[in-house]
Amino acid sequence: MSFSATEPTRGTKWFAGIAVVLYAIITLIPLLWIVATGFKSPADSISYPPVVVFEPSLEGYVNLFTARTRATEDMLEAAGPAVTWYDKITRNRGTIISGPSRYGERFMNSIIIGFGSTLLCMILGTAAAYAFSRFKVPLKDDLLFFILSTRMMPPIAVAIPIFLMFRNLGLNDTHLGMILLYTAVNLSLSVWLLKGFIDEIPIEYEEAALIDGYTRFQAFYKVVLPQAATGIASTAIFCLIFAWNEYAFAVLLTSGTAQTAPPFIPTIIGTSGKDWPAVAAGATIFLVPVMVFTILLRKHLLRGITFGAVRK
Amino acid sequence: MAQIRIENVRKDFGSFNAVKSSTFTIEDGEFFMLLGPSGCGKTTTLRMMAGLELPTSGEIYIDGEEVGQKPASQRDIAFVFQMFALYPHMNVGRNISYPLLCQGMPKAQVRKKVGEIAEILGITKILKKPVSGLSGGDRQRVALGRAIVRDPKAFFMDEPLGALDAEFREHMSEELRALHDRMNATTVYVTHDQLEAMQMGDKIVVMNHGSVEQFGVPQEIYEWPATKFVAQFIGSPCMNFLEFKGKVAGGQASVQLDNAVFKIPELLDGASGDLTFGVRPEHVHLDDAGSYRGKVVATEYLGTTQIITLDTPNGQIKAREASLKNVAVGEQTGLRFDARTVTIFDASTGRALRSHANQGVLTHG
After folding, report:
1. How does pLDDT run across B225-264, given as a tens digit for each residue?
2. For a 10 Å CB count at each end of chain A, is N or C smaller?
3. What pLDDT band is residue A2 in, cutting at 50, 70 and 90?
4. Which residues are bridge partners to B241 per DSSP?
C-alpha cells in the first residue's frame, strides 16, 4: 500500500463529498422554499405547520403581474365569462384583472440598470486596470488605495449627499443616475480585480504584438483582452450581482420611472393583504437573470477565482 | 537585411543607470552576441534596439536610418522572447501568420508563406494545433517561425534557449545557427552563457555594469581580453590571475614572479603598483624543470583533459593538462607558461596593458 502526500485518500474524498452536498442542501433550502412558495395558494403559504406537499397554483404569478379590483355583479356581467386561465384564477377570488402590474417595468429597470452599469464598469475598469498594470502612473499606489478606500464606507453613509447631488443634477429617479451610481460603487472592485488579472498576463505578449507591427491599442484589443476574458467575466459577475441586489440606494433614489425590482417586491405585500405567493413569485423571477448570467460564465468564474494561484 | 549601429546609447531607469554610453556596429548578416552576467544591461540594450525601451540618449541606426525614438512597430524587426510569448489564444499557424495579417497581406499569400516557413522549420504537422500543448522545442520553432515569416531587417533574440533543457539547447543552438547561415540575416542574440556566445557568434560584445567591456570576434576576445572582467567571464575555467607588485615599462618583454623570470609579449604600455599576470589554464604547463614552484591542491578529471588546481606564491591557479598525465594531490611541481599568450593587467583599473601581441585586438575594440 502506498501513500501519496498530495493525493487524498478514499475516505477523505467521501467525507469531502458529503460535506459539500450537505452545504449545498443547507444553502439551497431557503431558495427552494421561495420557489415553492411562489406556487402555493395564499392559504398554503401561511399554514402552520408549513406544508411541503401542496397543490401547485399559479395564483402568485398571476397576482404578481396583474392589478386587480374587487368585482361587483355588474362588472362581472359586463366582462362576460372568464376566457383565459388567469381570468379564471382571479374570478375564483372575486376579483377581475384591471390591468398589468408594475412588476414588468421594474424588472426591465433592473435589467437596464444592472447590465448597463456592469457594462460601463467593465469598460472603464479594464481601461483603468490596464493603465495601472502597464504604465507608469504618478502616485500609482496612492491612487489605487484611494480607489479601494471608496469601498470601505457603508453606502448609507453617503446616501444623503448623493441624494442631494442627484436632485440638483436632475438624476433622481433616472436610469442614467442609477447606472452611474452603481458603476461608481463597483469600479473600485473591478479595477482591483482586473488589475490582478492583467498583471498575470506576461507583458511579452503585448511586446510581441508591438514588434509584429500592431499599435499599442491593437495589442491591447487583440492580445490582452482575449487573455483577460476570464478575469473580465468573473469581475462582471460580481458587479452584476451587486447592482442587481442593491436595495438601499434604490429605495432612496428611485420611486417611479427608474425603480428597480428590489424596492418594488416588498411593496407587493401591502397592496392586497399579505400576498406571500406573489412576493415569492417576484423573488423567483428576479433570481433568473443573474442565475442565467452566472451559469453562462461559470467556467470563467471558476477559473477566475483560482486564477493566479499557481504560477504556470 | 541591415547593418545596425549603436552610438553613445544610454539608458536610465529613474536614478539607476542601466546602460552607459555604448557604441558598436553590427554588420549586415552578422550573428552578433550580447554577452554578460545578469543585470549587465545586455537585455536593455537589445530592447532599445528593438524599440521596446527608448534610449535616454544616443542614436540607433538600422539600415542607415535613425530609429532611436521610434516605436517597435515601425522598425521592421523581429524579436524572439525567452519565454517565446506565443499568443496563447491562437493556434500555431495563426501565431506565425499574425505579423503578416498586420501588414494586410492577402489570405492566400499568407497561407503560402506560412506553409513555406513551416516547411523550413519542420513544423508543418503541428500548424493546426494550439500552442499550449507544444513541447519547448516546438514552441521555440514556432517563435522563430513568427520571426522569420515576414523577412524583417533584423532578428533580435533574448536568451531564446534559456527556457529549454540542457540536452535540447545543444540541438536547438545548432538549428538556430544553421537557420542563420541559410537566411543570412542580421541577428542580435542576448545570452549570459559564454559557451553559447563563442559557439554561435560571429562577433561578441561583452558587457558588465552597463558598459561595453570588449567587442570583437570570439577568438580575439578569448585570447586577448581587454579587461580582467572579460578574462574571468570567458573560458571555463577562467583565465588565471597571478597578482604581483612591481613596475613594467613599454618595450619590456619579461616580468619577475617570485624568484622566476617569465617571458611575455613585448609591452607597449607601462604601469606600476598592483599588476596581474594573466594566463589561460591551457597555457599553464606542469614542468619539473621550472624554477617557479606550485603545490597541487586538487585535480578534476574531465575525460580528455584534467584541471589541476595549484597553490603558487602569487595565488591559486588552474592548469589544463592531458588526462594521461599522472598528477597526485600534494605534489610539488615546477610551472611553465606559454610566453606568447600572456596578458598583463593593471590591477587598479582592471584593463589589459597593450603589447605587441594584443594591440591589434585592443585598438579596434
Report:
1. 999 999 999 998 999 999 999 899 988 999 988 888 999 9
2. N
3. low
4. B278
Spans of chain B, pLDDT less than 50:
365
Average pLDDT, integer, range A113-131:
96
Chain B nearest C-alpha distance from A229 (Å): 11
Residue B146 to residue A125: CA distance in whole angstroms: 32
* Whether B151 contacts chain A with CB within 8 A: no
Q: Does the beta carbon of B188 lie under 8 angstroms from any beta carbon of chain A?
A: no
Report residue B87 as a C-alpha cell: 499568443
- Nearest Cα of chain B lies from the Cα of A129 at a distance, in angstroms, of 21
Beta strands in A27-84 (DSSP E): 66-70
User: Which CATH code for domain B239-364?
Assistant: 2.40.50.140
State if pTM tops 0.90: no
Report the candidate in B7, B344, B29, B79 with the shortest Cα–Cα distance to residue A210. Answer: B79
Beta carbons of A211 and B103 less than 8 Å apart:
no
Cell 557604441, located at residue? B23
Q: How far is B112 from chain A (nearest CA, A)?
A: 19
**Rama region for A135: left / alpha / beta (φ>0; ψ in -120 to 50; rest):** beta
Domain boundaries B4-223, corresponding CATH code:
3.40.50.300
